[in-house]
Structures are given as structure tokens and as C-alpha cells.
Amino acid sequence: MAESFSVAFNAVAPFLILLGIGFLIVRTGLSDREFMNRLNTLNFRIFFPFLMFNNVYGAKPENMPSLKLMLTGALSVILLVILLVIIVPKIVKENPRRGVIIQGIFRSNFIIYGIPLTTSVFGTEKSSVCGIMILLMVSIFNIAGVIVLELFRDGGKIRPGKLLLGIAKNPLLQGCVLGLLFYLLQIRLPKFIESPVSSLASLASTLALVVLGANLRFDELRRNARTVTAVLVIRLVLLPLVMVPLAWAIGLRGVELFLVLIIFGTPVATSSYPMAQNMGGDGPLAGQLVFVSTVASLGTIFLFIFTMSRLGLLI
């Protein structure tokens, strides 16, 4: 039990510390929200593309995930997005909130939590399975995120030309595509370039969390409390409760079953906040979903890992 708690706590605690640092930066007058918003735009356009490139470029082909796992992850997320695009507009009236809510439910922080959690539970030798899944899932999350936000930025009207242009111009997707080209063509960067690329990539999530903490407003959090609660119950509880047993029923075991938990049971993706803020979505709501889900996931991830361990599902 102590070991399971340690795995979950060590994965989540650094995120909470970075949020706290951002919160204190503004509250102590070291910076203001206007500067933090400019920093957020810079992060979205420069550092996050490096992160997306680096994660795809650095994926290792050893220990390839099974076709069953790849199909389960990809098809289930695509089906979930389709269902949400149909259902959410019937419940939520404001377009900027629709896109953010849909993204908050389907888009997990798999890219950040995947390898650390997999390594903690299964060891380094299994982490490359997660690396290949990151390549697949990040592509799906980013394409779906752009489509959803572009769709509701246009007032719910699908304009194929503008939609395709929005996808093509998205910095995160550009980083993904470039990384995929380098990966497939086996192009390796020289060390003097690879090192700064890796350094720039490591800035993205750190800056996103610091900016998120700086822009957090508790009065707005209270105003969105019901929406945030509903989205996070679905994101952190219902989705893993449905998907993990389903994955087990179709034959996924051990590390592959665990990856299904990470895809559907980790917090809302950090990158969804700068993306929403830069694409006409409800930025404060997106930030609150990232913040609260990061805090709440400390308990939910612990409970799922502990339960799966006790049931012998992580062997």
C-alpha cells in the first residue's frame, strides 16, 4: 500500500509545487497576469512544439505495444470524441465552454504521466511500450483537440477549409508531424542540436503549470464548480472504471492494461490550457480543469493503482 501511494504521490506532487510557485509569483507582486498571458502564448507557439517533437522523435521501437492496445486506445478516444461532440452541445450553450469541456473529458495528461508512472510500476525496460503509445495518442489528442476547438470557435459550423487550415497551422501538431517524419525516416539530430531541443522541450510543461498557477482565480473556480466537478468525475472516475475492465475483458494484461488506466485516468492535459486560451476557448475554465484534476488525481490514481495491484492486474 505504501509503495502504491508513493508512486502516485511522486508523480503528482511536482505538478502541485509548480502550480503553487506560479500562484505565489503573482500574489507576491513579482509579476502580473498580463506578463503571464504573454508567456503562455510564447509557450504555446514555441516550447510546446519542441515538447511534441521530442516525445515523438525520441520514441524507441523496442517492446512495441500490441496491435490490440493501439486499436483500443485510438478507437476508444475517437469514439469518445464523437459522442461528446453530439452530447455536450445539447447541455452546454456557450461555444467557448463546449470545446473546453469536450477537450477536458477526452484529453488526458498521458504525455506527461505515462513514462514516469510506467517506469515506477514496471521498471525502465517497459517504458518504451509507453513511448510508442505516446506517439500514437499525442497525435490523436492534438488533432481531435484542434478540430473540437476550431469547430466551436466557428459557432458550431463546420467549414472544412478553415478547419484544415487551423489543423495545419497548429504549433503542437506541427511539432508532432516533424517528429514523426524524423522518427519514420530515422533522421538523428547531431548532439549539439539534440541537447538544446531537449532543454526547450522540458520547459513547456513547467511553464504551462507555473502560468496556470499564476492565473488561477478562486472566485471563478467557485463560479465553475459544478461544471468542473461534472467533467472531472467523468475524466478521473467514470472513464477508467469503464475502460480498464473493458480492456481486461478483451485480453490486455500487465503493462498494457496499466497504459489504458493512464490514458483514461490521468488529469486533464496541461497543453489543453494554452491551446484553449489561444484558440478562442474558455481559458479560465480550461485552467481550472487542469488545476483541479491534477490535485484530485493524487487520490484517484492512488486508488486505481492500489486496487489493480491488490487484484493482481499489474503482473
Question: What's this, in brief?
Answer:
This protein has helices at residues 2-27, 33-57, 67-91, 95-106, 110-122, 127-153, 160-169, 171-184, 191-214, 218-223, 225-249, 254-265, 272-278, 283-310. With 315 residues, it is an all-alpha fold.
Characterization of the model:
With 315 residues, the protein is an all-alpha fold. It has 14 helices and no strands. α1 packs antiparallel against α5, α1 (2-27) crosses α9 (191-214) and α3 (67-91) packs antiparallel against α4. The model has no long low-confidence stretch (mean pLDDT 85).
Give me some keywords for this one.
0% strand, mainly alpha, Na+/H+ antiporter like fold, 81% helix, 315 residues
Mean of pLDDT = 85
Low-pLDDT runs of 5+ residues are none
Major sheet summary line: none
Beta-strand portion reads under 5%
Straight-line distance between termini: 16 Å
Query: How many structural domains in the coordinates?
Result: 1
CATH topology (level 3) name: Na+/H+ antiporter like fold
Kindly provide the name of the CATH class: Mainly Alpha
Helix content: over 70%
Number of helical segments with 4 or more residues: 14
Q: If you compute it from the alpha carbons, what radius of gyration comes out, rounded to the nearest whole angstrom? A: 19 Å
Q: Can you tell me the overall shape?
A: globular
Q: Per CATH, which architecture? A: Up-down Bundle
The SSE string, one letter per element, is HHHHHHHHHHHHHH
Which structural category do the helix and sheet elements fall into?
mainly alpha
Number of E-state strands: 0
